[in-house]
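Tutorial sheet, problem 5. The two components below are modelled jointly, 574 residues in total.
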Amino acid sequence: MIQGLDGAPQGPPLPVDYWSMLFVFVLATFIGLGVIRRVSRLLYTPLMSLTNAISAIAVVGSIVVAGADYPRVIRILGAVALFASMTNIVSGFLITDRMLKMFKKQ
Amino acid sequence: MTHAVAQFAAVLATVLFIFSLYWMNDPKTARHAVVAGVTAMLVAVLATWIQPEIVHHGWVVLAIVAGFIVGVPLSRVPLTAVPQRTALSHAFGGLAAGLVGVAEYYLWLGERSAQLTPFRMSALVAEVILGFLTFTGSLMAAGKLQEVKWIPQRPVTYPGQNVVNIGVLAIAVALGVLIVVHPTAAWSGHAFRAIAGLALLFGVLLIIPIGGADMPTVISILNSYAGLSAVAMGFVLDSKLLVTAGALDGSSGLILSIIMCRAMNRSFSNVLFGAFGTVRKTAAIGEQKEWKQETVEGAAQLLEQASRVVVIPGYGMAVAQAQHKVRELYDQLTKRGVTVQFAIHPVAGRMPGHMNVLLAEANIPYTALVEMDDINPEMPQCDVALVIGANDVVNPAARYAKDTPIYGMPIIDADKAKTVLAIKRSKNPGFAGIDNELYVQDNTWMLFGDAKTVVGDLVKQLAGGGLH
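Model answer (structure tokens):
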């Protein structure tokens, strides 16, 4: 069974507690709405590149698919996904920093 | 042991991501946001990598190196190209989710089909549909923004378009429901491939009727989809970290979409299915008035004698790459004690916040950048409103002309300034194809020409060098 960061790496597959996942999703969305609403309007462009890099946390799923002992075809799919996520992480954080550096008070 | 490390890393990364977004509330603390984000990412990646089931390290290293090779140049694009870079990264996010979804499905189908519970199967279908439609939709958006030759810039519409679009999505969802109910039927593999194909097709169909002026909204919506596809991936992989990070991204895209829609007085469905920019109606201007042209000398004098100047930049400024000349103009005027501010419309440019970044790049202090709602009450006290490459966002027809597509859109009240100077490349109407009566107002003077050249000439005139 494939597991992300939270999963048990070994042993028989446990039934996933989808209800608590839904809870996490709902609560995280509300935290997101609360935090994002306070973001400075000046910074919407860097905000978008930052959240882009953050959602590329999908990289943790891709690492498992690409690196575990699965059939070759599956690992190729995983490696392409890993490449795509990694590109977002690298370019997302670098360009966010590049833009934020430009905002000066005087 | 490694399991506990992974759990702890996930919690730590979640906290850091939330702080990262929190620090974006002020340009002063914003750079901490990047440090927090990078730290969280490193922690999460390392904690995953040390798990015992990862055995093919070469593959992981190879993909990461490839990501760096493509990612670093992508982060160095000119700031005018940031919208297409952003669209491209949404495409990559969607692609990753879609591919992992396909991989997971075949793994489970082959080895442990008992794992394909209805809930998990629903999450898989959602992941694949959202991931692949975000992938092709964002690629199309990036192509339109980059003005790639074989992607039409103007909205492409045909009769029954919405029926076709909704039909394609409906078939994909219906097939999805079928395989949720019968995950291991003999035909389920075909159905799964059909869902992926339809989602890819739907992404293309969704974006072709959309024009350039709607790009800020569309990019925000695709941002939201990219986040949601990461959430679906989190459900599939049973990762709360992924669900949380995806939800943060999704809610950010949602808020930006709402702000963009409000700034155009339009609804989501209107943006996605309305094909803005195809309507070519002319605002009813009672009498046909003449444009009044001003010379550079005269305009420079007007600016010099003002005590308060508000510059209203639009996408035309970015196209002409005039922002650095605008900074020189800002320096010339502030040196003379003129107060210069920049009025930023939320949808000016091709993505949310685009104008702010371009002006910040030109070293204009962010304290001089003022949002539409804050500047509008002060416009009557403004001596000169200088419009540079903006059009629809200053068109007074938005207030009353019900037959135009911009009706009801909040605008920057340039027309209420004592004098208006407008720099415009040609006499053609703007993106929405509507005449702008601001240009024929009694107190408006036009400066025709490329924004960069005209602003450059103004700077030379003010610097005392005269022209040429």
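Marking note: Residues 296-463 of chain B form a domain with the Rossmann fold fold (CATH 3.40.50.1220). Full credit if you identified this.
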